[in-house]
Write a structure and sequence with these properties.
transmembrane; 2 helices; 0% strand; mainly alpha; transmembrane helix
Length: 64
């Protein structure tokens, strides 16, 4: 579960930062589906992935 948390945290963080770091016409094909519901829901999904990943990572960090 810790590894899943690390993956979700990193993927969500990349998804949050990518629009600011990459050119405006660059699009992630795997992330296009979240924009079908609008920008607010897209931000909520990306932020939720970051928070869920952080929670899993910190919650299972001491378990082997």
């Amino acid at each position: 579960m810790r590894e899943l948390g690390i993956f979700l945290f990193c993927a969500g963080l990349i998804a949050l930062l990518a629009p600011y770091l990459l050119p405006a016409n660059f699009r992630f094909p795997l992330l296009d589906w979240i924009y079908n519901w609008g920008p607010t829901v897209a931000w909520a999904i990306k932020g939720g992935a970051v928070l869920l990943g952080l929670g899993l990572w910190l919650g299972f960090r001491n378990r082997q």
